Amino acid sequence: MNSKERVQATLEGRIPDRVPWGEFAVDFDTVERIIGHETYFRAKAKSRIAFWEGRHDEVAESYRHDHIELHRRLDLDIVTFPLATWEIPPESDDPPPRKVDESTWVDRYGRVFKYSAQSEDITCVRDPVEEARTFSPDDFRGTPAAPERDVRSWAVLEAVIGALKNEKFICGPSGGIVGLVLPGGLVKAAPFLVGWPELIEAATARLPGHPAVGGHGPRPPEKESRRAFCPLGRRSTREPDRRHAGRREAGRAAGHGLRQGRRPVHPGDEPQHRRRQPLR
């Protein structure tokens, strides 16, 4: 049973030869120790600086080659595409941001970027362009434009999937997770959550995947949604769990005994060979 068959068996409720193994992300420092050389793969800060400097081809080649090499060396069953593993931003004529100190950059528009050693990423912490922008619900009417993708992004995906699709289970890139829709950023949009909910509703409705823009429609029934999040929990979603039925029945009997004024049955009253180990 190869990795792809192992995951498919699990999702179909069959018992695989072993539990499938997948990682949401393996960061660049671990990747470098595994493959034995430097990489841009999952190196978020280093990748961003390279994009600023116009080294898109260099990063794309690293994403392609090192992702495949990582899976050749690790016995992972599932291939994932988190941040800094496949997407190449379109090239720009803008000059690279000016470095102010060891952890701060400012671009020509006044946007401030900061490096975080904890996340190994460079994040925009102030965007005067967005702060100056005004919004109205009409800005979010209609179907949103498709995101602009550099052709090298698709080339990376096709290369990795083509190399691993017959042996590994592929989890392709998703649209990401959105907790709150905040037009203009947290500081600007926080008052809108209370004072202008129509704007937030209009912006939310425009998200890809929302029924208003041809998305997937309402959420599935609760039973199906649990299956989507717990693919390994076959028993909990498809059939009653009989593993601890005896324990539940004993609990009911004990409760019935208390209600009737009888002494409940305790595990210690059972013969030694019938005692159960506590749940862990």
List keywords for this structure.
4-stranded antiparallel beta sheet; 8% strand; alpha+beta; disordered C terminus; 280 residues
Summarize the structure.
By secondary structure, this protein is α+β, with helices and mostly antiparallel strands. It is 39% helix and 8% strand.
Class derived from helix and strand content: alpha+beta
Poorly predicted regions: 211-245, 250-280
**Secondary structure: helix percent:** 25-40%
What do the pLDDT scores average to?
Answer: 80
Distance between the termini: 30 Å
Q: For the CA atoms, what is the radius of gyration?
A: 26 Å
What is the multimeric organization of the chains shown? Answer: single chain
For the secondary structure, the number of strands is 6
How do the strands of the widest beta sheet line up side by side? 2-3-4-5
* Number of H- or I-type helical stretches: 11
How would you sum up the major sheet? 4 strands, antiparallel
What sequence of helices (H) and strands (E) makes up the elements?
HHHHEEEEEHHEHHHHH
Shape: globular
Roughly what fraction of the amino acids lie in strands? 5-15%
